[in-house]
Design brief:
Isopropylmalate Dehydrogenase, 11 helices, 44% helix, globular
């Protein structure tokens, strides 16, 4: 009897051992990242937090799903045109095998920790899945607590959804707390409780980020938008924490406003030179309204910041599965994402050149895709931007 038990245990654990060996082999075969090192703290890149190789910044790039690979090809093409001193470490997420996808996400987090900065597409292939979002999971894993979106109106966009009023504001919202804290549990078998987690530490950290952004970009005022009569304890802590931080910045005007009052204000007035500080849900609501005002969500980019890392992506997290290969996608979002990335890396001349090239394409040449009232294709818009960039490069404005 004892011999049979020993034999059973050997067969069982030998099977698990061989299975683990096979999974490791598959992972090594699947992983094509030449810079991969699980011991990144002691790797050649771990000692260099700026992620530079030969004077070039090393940036993690994950293409995402749908139109993501097309957008990343556009970004690399335009960066080459503007002589941007950037190298990309390209990664993919396996969408077919959940275990491999989890390993790829760990690999992605390691890469961002090495390089300090990343640009990515939408990581979600199946938005109906009940599994936690890969985008949110990455934010929580890297403590990317601040979500920044800059909204600017474009005079060249004459779209039925856009407005003639001038808009030039920045929105800073929670990215790891509130609805994005992902703290929930079952109560029995018939109920689930979701906690809208808000802490003073993270709120004050977010508020300081907003005030520093206002100081660095010459914004006149920080407006805290809160949900009146909704989660009063959490919103009260959010508001009081922001008021405490406001006392540290006497040169920046401070105002608090309920979300209903704020939305009525931007409906009838020009809104510029302000930083809007909001919770996770409130920030999303305001962003959706402002996207309608400027004409399209493809005209803005998202900058997500933590204490050590930064991730850049188009604000329109559309998968665009039906748009793949159609040459109709608006490339403005990924181009503006590239400009923000370059500015973050300290390449201000290249960032300004790319930003101005996009502005001239939209406002002066009015080469517009269909989603903003034009008839141009993706390639038409990209070619026009590249034409303006080549002019600037020829004038010596963008040296590598």
């Amino acid at each position: 009897m004892f011999t049979k038990i020993i034999g059973f245990l050997k067969r069982r654990y030998l099977h698990k051992y061989l299975l683990n060996i096979d999974q490791k082999r598959n992972f090594q075969h699947k992983n094509k990242n030449p810079y991969y090192d699980p011991n990144f703290e002691t790797s050649i890149h771990g000692s260099n937090p700026s992620g530079k190789i030969g004077g070039r910044n090393l940036v993690t790039m994950v293409k995402g799903v749908g139109i993501g690979p097309e957008l990343m090809l556009i970004l690399k093409d335009v960066f080459a045109c503007v002589n941007a001193p950037v190298m990309f470490e390209e990664l993919d997420i396996d969408e077919e095998d959940p275990e491999m996808a989890e390993a790829d996400m760990e690999n992605l987090a390691l890469s961002i920790r090495r390089n300090g900065v990343a640009v990515k597409g939408n990581l979600e292939k199946d938005q109906k899945s009940l599994i936690i979002s890969k985008n949110i999971s990455l934010n929580l894993k890297l403590d990317l607590f601040a979500h920044l979106i800059d909204f600017r109106s474009y005079p060249g966009v004459k779209h039925k959804k856009s407005t003639d009023r001038e808009i030039n504001v920045s929105i800073v919202r929670q990215n790891t707390e509130g609805a994005f804290a992902m703290v929930e549990h079952e109560i029995g078998k018939k109920a689930v409780e979701h906690l809208n987690l808000t802490t003073r530490f993270n709120t004050e950290r977010l508020a300081r980020f907003a005030f520093k952004h206002a100081t660095q970009h010459c914004k006149e005022r920080v407006v805290v938008v809160f949900n009146k009569g909704y989660h009063e304890e959490a919103e009260g802590l959010f508001l009081s924490s922001c008021q405490t931080v406001a006392e540290e910045y006497p040169d920046i005007k401070f105002k608090s406003q309920s979300i209903g009052s704020f939305l009525r204000t931007i409906m009838v007035e020009d809104y510029r030179d302000n930083v809007i500080l909001a919770s996770s849900v409130g920030g999303q609501m305001i962003s959706s309204v402002l996207c309608g005002f400027i004409g399209c969500s493809a005209l803005v980019c998202s900058c997500i910041y933590g204490e050590k890392y930064a991730v850049f992506e188009p604000a329109a997290r559309q998968r665009g599965m039906k748009l793949v290969g159609q040459n109709t996608v608006n490339p403005a979002g990924i181009l503006l994402t590239g400009a923000s990335l370059l500015r973050h890396l300290g390449h201000d001349e290249h960032a300004t050149a790319l930003q101005e090239a996009v502005d001239e394409t939209i406002n002066c040449d009015q080469v517009l895709t269909r989603d903003i009232g034009g008839t141009a294709s993706t390639c038409d818009m990209v070619d026009t931007v590249k034409k303006h960039l080549k002019t600037r490069v020829a004038m010596g404005m963008c040296e590598e």
